[in-house]
TrEMBL record:
Domain RNA polymerase sigma factor 70 region 4 type: from-to ranges: 113-161
Organism: Tardiphaga robiniae
Stretches assigned to coiled coil: none
Any GO molecular function: DNA binding
Name this protein carries in UniProt: RNA polymerase subunit sigma-24
Pfam families membership: Sigma70_r2, Sigma70_r4_2
PANTHER family registered for this protein in UniProt: RNA POLYMERASE ECF-TYPE SIGMA FACTO, RNA POLYMERASE SIGMA FACTOR FECI-RELATED
Length: 186
């Protein structure tokens, strides 16, 4: 009887996999997470069968769904338990620092200085910087776009980053403004 019970449950899991996955995906907002839960449910059924435990179940489909929900709850408890008190204190201190009005004003000034500095870059260097850092394009694609080698892309990006780093460092020491040296257009 035990083997029949688990064979029936596994067959139902296979036959109604998409329906169960859809319900779980709606509940948790992720089809991938729902699939993981159903795979864990399959493994749980294997372990339970090996243990020889069986019981009478009125609604096998609801039973499988409940197994998956319990697995999700177990996973959530496990993940929450991994945050230590020290980590919580550090997060709290960081959040307080991030909400400091002086820090917010300073960050806005840095963003403004960075924007000015990016606009001061030579056109090709600026285009390469934007493609690499903002559009996240591969160097090879940037090289083809500009008709240059990957090595030139790397050099131009390095020069742009050095210049922008200098501007931000000078801005921090001066306490404002967009300082920095004029970028060369090599």
């Amino acid at each position: 009887m035990t083997e029949n019970f688990f064979t029936t449950l596994r067959r139902l899991l296979v036959d109604d996999y998409h329906g169960l996955r859809e319900r779980l995906a709606r509940r948790y907002g992720s089809a991938d997470f729902a699939s993981e839960l159903l795979h864990e449910a399959w493994l749980k059924l294997d372990r339970a069968q090996a243990g020889g435990s069986a019981m009478a179940v009125r609604n096998p489909r609801a039973y499988l769904y409940r197994i998956a929900i319990n697995l999700a709850a177990d996973r959530g408890r496990s993940e929450r338990a991994q945050v230590t008190v020290a980590e919580l204190d550090a997060l709290h201190r960081r959040a307080q620092d991030d909400l400091n009005p002086g820090r917010i004003a300073e960050a806005r000034m840095e963003v403004q200085a960075l924007s000015v500095a990016i606009n001061q870059l030579p056109p090709r260097r600026r285009a390469i910087f934007i493609a690499a850092r903002l559009e996240e394009l591969p160097y090879k694609e940037i090289a083809v776009r500009h008709g240059i080698t990957v090595r030139v892309v790397d050099r131009e990006l390095s020069l742009a980053l050095d210049y922008l780093s200098d501007v931000l460092n000078k801005n921090r020491h001066i306490g404002g403004g967009s300082g920095g040296r004029e970028p060369s257009s090599t």
